């Protein structure tokens, strides 16, 4: 009779077999545990569910790559990065980076996919209106962006490609070297995105770091003249208010 | 807390959301996968809240992993200091997030599975089979105690579909009976899983059923299965098999009325087709055996 293996050891062996899918490991597991041919059901379910999860999260990247190339990339990623989070939605955080060497466009599309997905389920907030600005003490105020906001650096025109793939429009030619930072956030329940200019990126990053608006203006003034800096910062602020990007002021 | 689950329901799936948020779907309750709504905000939470305004909700989890030798997700923090901090916090988060969802939705039932999903830093996201040993029973009961204490409520645990058998283990019905006796949890009886497991192991589904702690059944699942290379597979992608309907009729003859629902996760048809199928459950008591 086969001895009962301690639970932790059995589970470690089972997981090693799931991850590696090695026939020698499977044979050893089967021999030790006398578990039979049904073992393959679990191996299959493990890999299929992860490929499906990666595809669900990175839909535009999957469209761009095509089914075979996407599944091959997913298989390589699953081998390299076994899942650890309790939620399968978190799986694939490194997938965009893993695609970059072979296909920078796919990598950027995947990064946008991921940001859109994160923002879609991000924390709710009611953006401030322009009327609220009258109450703000600008000497101390810190801009607090809405929580469902992501900054996505891209190296291609993946934003245009992503929108075209989403809307079944004619997909433009891919363009490498079209470096930008995207802002992805939510208006109501719908994710939206656009390119952020360098001043916006600087203000946003500084605000997220807790730096007050007055100091941000001072730093901008160091790069140009003061009146111009205040005008530029004010323009950004007005645009953000209109786009529902600001949750409140600290 | 809302009233106990009763009547006939469906798993609430994305293609049918519009019917549930308006309350027009003719069901007595809906069930959702807990993890899909253990999120900060956005449309999914709004959708569930709107459906909740019309229907009692059952929360059905897939990630608690009561059979993991190193404890359920929420227990992980206390006993594994070798992991990196990110994973450590991530796993500790599970029961807190589930509790927050329970507090928000006030579900009529909260359930998970008799299974494990991973160990250490690895989580397979699959419902893996627990070897039904005395050691595993201790592990499972500790985890259920921990979860029920954290949630401050009784949970239901589902009998899994089984594709393999471990040597030197007790029958599943005996394991489940002891689990129920020691923890006070309820049983989410998946009739299709009983049929699939019994068939795969060459046993009589009725004998399997009769061994279960039927007094503790708080909810029943029905689903379709398919024929795999090595046996039946619980795929949830087809209509409920006639043999499973017959087993269901036998079940409710033994239990009396129990909240019953159909799970459909693949090849999802129009809602009307599922409603028609659910009507069979309403008349199962008078089905010929």
Q: In summary, what is this structure?
A:
By secondary structure, chain A is of the alpha+beta class. In chain A, 55% of the residues lie in helices and 14% in strands. Chain A has 11 helices and 5 strands, in the order H-H-H-H-H-H-H-E-E-H-E-E-H-H-H-E.
Topology:
The complex is a heterodimer of chains A (250) and B (289).
Chain A: H1 7-20, H2 23-33, H3 39-57, H4 59-65, H5 67-80, H6 95-100, H7 104-120, E1 143-145, E2 149-156, H8 158-167, E3 176-187, E4 190-196, H9 198-208, H10 213-223, H11 226-243, E5 246-249
Antiparallel strand pairs in A: 1-5, 2-3, 3-4
Helix pairs in contact in A: 1-2, 3-5, 4-5, 4-7, 7-8, 10-11
Chain B: E1 8-11, H1 17-21, E2 29-33, H2 43-52, E3 57-60, H3 76-79, H4 85-105, E4 109-113, E5 116-119, E6 122-128, H5 134-151, E7 156-158, H6 172-183, E8 186-190, H7 191-200, H8 205-211, E9 217-222, E10 226-227, E11 232-233, H9 242-255, E12 260-262, H10 271-282
Parallel strand pairs in B: 1-2, 1-12, 2-3, 3-4, 4-7, 7-8, 8-9, 9-12
Antiparallel strand pairs in B: 5-6, 10-11
The CATH superfamily label of chain B reads: Divalent-metal-dependent TIM barrel enzymes
Largest contact between protein chains? A-B, 50 and 51 residues
Strands in their spatial order, largest beta sheet of chain A: 2-3-4
Q: What fraction, in percent, of the residue positions of chain B are helical?
A: 25-40%
The CA-CA distance between the termini of chain A, in Å, is 69 Å
Radius of gyration of chain B: 18 Å
Q: Give the biggest beta sheet of chain B.
A: 8 strands, parallel, barrel
Task: Indicate the CATH topology of chain B.
Answer: TIM Barrel
Describe the 3D structure:
The complex is a heterodimer of chains A (250) and B (289). Chain A is an alpha+beta fold and 250 residues long. Chain A has one domain (37-249). Chain A is built from 11 helices and 5 strands. In chain A, the strands form 2 sheets. Chain A has a 3-stranded antiparallel sheet. Chain A has a two-stranded antiparallel sheet with strand order 1-5. In chain A, strand 3 (176-187) and strand 4 form a beta hairpin. The longest helix of chain A has 19 residues, at 39-57. Chain A is elongated and about 75 Å long. With 289 residues, chain B is an alpha/beta fold. Chain B has one domain: Divalent-metal-dependent TIM barrel enzymes (TIM Barrel, Alpha-Beta Barrel), CATH 3.20.20. In chain B, the strands form 3 sheets. In chain B, strands 1-2-3-4-7-8-9-12 form an 8-stranded parallel β-barrel. In chain B, strands 5-6 form a two-stranded antiparallel ribbon. In chain B, helix 5 packs across helix 6. Chain B is globular. Classes of the chains: A alpha+beta (250), B alpha/beta (289). Chains A and B meet through helix 1 and helix 3 of A and helix 2, helix 4, strand 5, strand 6 and helix 5 of B.
């Amino acid at each position: 009779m086969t001895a009962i293996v301690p639970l932790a050891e059995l589970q470690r062996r089972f997981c090693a077999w799931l991850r590696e899918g090695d026939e020698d490991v499977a044979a050893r597991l089967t021999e030790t545990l006398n578990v039979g041919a049904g073992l393959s059901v679990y191996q299959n379910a493990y890999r299929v569910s992860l490929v499906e999860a990666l595809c669900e999260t990175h839909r535009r990247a999957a469209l761009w790559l095509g089914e075979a190339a996407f599944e091959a990339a997913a298989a390589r990623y699953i081998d390299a990065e076994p899942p650890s989070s309790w939620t399968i939605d978190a799986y694939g955080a490194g997938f965009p980076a893993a695609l970059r060497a072979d296909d920078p466009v796919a990598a950027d599309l995947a990064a946008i996919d991921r940001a859109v997905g994160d923002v879609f389920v991000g924390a709710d907030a009611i953006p401030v209106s322009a009327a609220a600005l009258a109450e703000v003490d600008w000497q101390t105020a810190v801009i607090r962006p809405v929580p469902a906001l992501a900054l996505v650096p891209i190296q291609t025109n993946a934003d245009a490609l992503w929108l075209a793939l989403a809307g079944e429009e004619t997909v433009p030619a891919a363009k490498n070297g079209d470096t930008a930072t995207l802002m992805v956030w939510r208006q109501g329940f719908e994710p939206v995105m656009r390119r952020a200019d360098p001043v916006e990126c600087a203000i946003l990053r500084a605000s997220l770091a807790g730096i007050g608006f007055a100091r941000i203006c001072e730093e901008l003034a160091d790069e140009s003249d003061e009146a111009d800096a205040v005008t530029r910062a004010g323009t950004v602020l007005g645009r953000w208010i209109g786009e529902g990007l600001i949750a409140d002021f600290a | 807390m809302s009233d106990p689950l009763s009547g006939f329901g469906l798993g609430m799936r994305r293609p049918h959301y519009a019917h549930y948020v308006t309350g027009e779907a003719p069901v007595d309750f809906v069930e959702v996968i807990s993890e899909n709504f253990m999120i900060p905000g956005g449309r999914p939470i709004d959708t569930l809240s709107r459906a909740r305004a019309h229907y009692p909700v059952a929360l059905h989890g897939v990630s608690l992993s009561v059979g993991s030798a190193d404890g359920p997700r929420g227990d992980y923090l206390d006993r594994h200091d070798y992991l990196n901090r990110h994973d450590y916090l991530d796993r500790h988060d599970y029961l807190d997030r589930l509790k927050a969802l329970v507090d928000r939705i006030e579900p009529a039932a909260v359930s998970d599975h008799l299974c494990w999903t991973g160990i250490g830093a690895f989580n397979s996201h699959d419902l893996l089979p627990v070897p039904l040993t005395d050691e595993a029973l201790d592990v499972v009961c500790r985890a259920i105690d921990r979860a029920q204490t954290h949630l401050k409520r009784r949970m239901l645990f589902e009998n899994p579909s089984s594709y393999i058998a471990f040597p030197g283990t007790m029958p599943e019905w005996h394991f489940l009976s002891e689990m129920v006796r020691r923890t006070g949890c309820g049983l989410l009886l998946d009739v299709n899983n009983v049929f699939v497991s019994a068939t795969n192991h060459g046993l009589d589904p009725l004998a399997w059923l009769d061994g279960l702690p039927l007094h503790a059944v708080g909810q029943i699942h029905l689903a379709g299965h398919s024929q795999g290379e090595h046996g039946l597979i619980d795929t949830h992608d087809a209509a409920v098999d006639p043999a499973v309907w017959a087993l269901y009729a036998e079940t409710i003859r033994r239990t009396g009325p129990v909240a019953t629902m159909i799970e459909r996760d693949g090849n999802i048809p129009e809602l009307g087709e599922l409603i028609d199928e659910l009507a069979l459950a309403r008349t199962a008591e008078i089905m010929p055996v």
